[in-house]
What does this fold into?
Amino acid sequence: MSTLVIAEHDNSSMNVATLNSVAAAQAIGGDIDILVVGTDCQAAAEQAAQVAGIGKVMVADNAAYAHSLAENVAPMVAEAAAGYSHIMATATTTAKNIMPRVAALLDVQSISDISGVVSEDTFKRPIYAGNLIATVQSSDAIKVLTVRGTAFDAAPAEGGSASIEVVASAHDSAKSSFIGEEVAVSDRPELTAADIVISGGRGMGNGENFDMLYSLADKLGAAVGASRAAVDAGFVPNDMQVGQTGKIVAPDLYVAVGISGAIQHLAGMKDSKVIVAINKDEEAPIFSVADYGLVADLFVALPELDAAV
Amino acid sequence: MKVLVAVKRVVDYNVKVRPKSDMTDVDLANVKMSINPFCEIAVEEAVRLKEKGVATEIIAVSVGPQQSQEQLRTALALGADRAILINTDETLEPLAIAKCLKAVCESESPDIILMGKQAIDGDNNQTGQMLGAMTGYGQATFASELTIDGGNATVIREVDGGLQTLALPLPAIVTADLRLNEPRYASLPNIMKAKKKQLDTTTPGDLGVDIANRVTLLGVELPAERAAGIKVEDISQLVDKLKNEAKVIS
It folds into this structure.
């Protein structure tokens, strides 16, 4: 039994999300290798080689892999999959885009977003926006899995010294090409990796009022998120959305401000260790998952909270 | 330009699902069923392409039981021209559904295939990507904006870091995210007209598709409930609790 973990990275460094998949692979057991597919991605590969308990790191470094285009990366991963029993990646938008294409190339049924490992072929995963947990058993020879990052504590990033092996093959399908991107730049921690997340909803009223959340977040070393309603209303960009179709977070502390708590939002944060809700509507469903609820006008409560921490 | 749009019959998004009493599966008895919201967005996008004069024909396709005709009629009422039901009573996995759709792509030769990014029952988020692998077409998943210019599609995608723009030669597969558009409501006259539109039925067997499941559902359970919380009186009590009881801030 052996698992190939597909690294999430930006070429210059490996994303810590990769370590959640390594932890899931350890729960399955057997040998674990990491595959880094990118362009000028040696630095990311070197980080991957330091992860404890890794057999080897394979690097496919080619211009065609620059923006993780699924049409190019999927055949590369499918080729590298030979000989492995499990192929795994943390369920980022990159992995969600690529892994089903890998599975179809291998003619196997991938399993999305596993939240638990029961045995080498049996996994738990949320369905219906996390309202139910399914236990599923795969009969495929190669199991292609994406991993819910919040369900597995990250494996240690250091302590290993795996060998790095260069994979020469290149796939350039020309079926899609990268035109550009708008990437949010922030000094705050990444939403999915932060210990504290403060999120605002429709109740914030407008984008400027999010400044109150940014100020509080900077005092607490927190990331700032948002509900779908706040993103749809144009208050903040899409990469801040927490929920079923946005990011899944499980920080030590989640503070929901002016968020009513639609089922789709709860799906993205209800595994947080401590949840605080501040909302003026005491009937808001968010209070049903909150450890500490404060029924108050957020425009009064937030400045007070900011002053108190 | 011919558009193929895939729709799935799923439990309505307002329904709170429960496990069956023997915990073997989801209890779908007497539950309201609807068109998957992401598929509805894909249908709306197809209709907008036709209204812009870009698309000439919209074919809606669904893989599922006889009752999936209801969701195909919804798509027809929204503006699809004709529909194909690939009828099966089995619960198919994304791999098998993608194989069925590939067979339709071969017979219909669409220029673009629009789908939802995921269905809200299984939350798999796989079928579009799998169809991409099987057809060899390019894929633009999680689309929030689609522009067609001659033989190319330009798609803005919602990704973890923000937004990414891709260009794809047609034919290509585009899967819809929430912000691609806001679907219209079907008007009563259009619902009536939809009843007369062509709806063909075939089966996976007729299409020569192997639909054997690879994954077995062993059971379902409710997620762990969170213990009931408390209401605090004011900010100072909240901060005190967070510092001294939960110990999550210092």
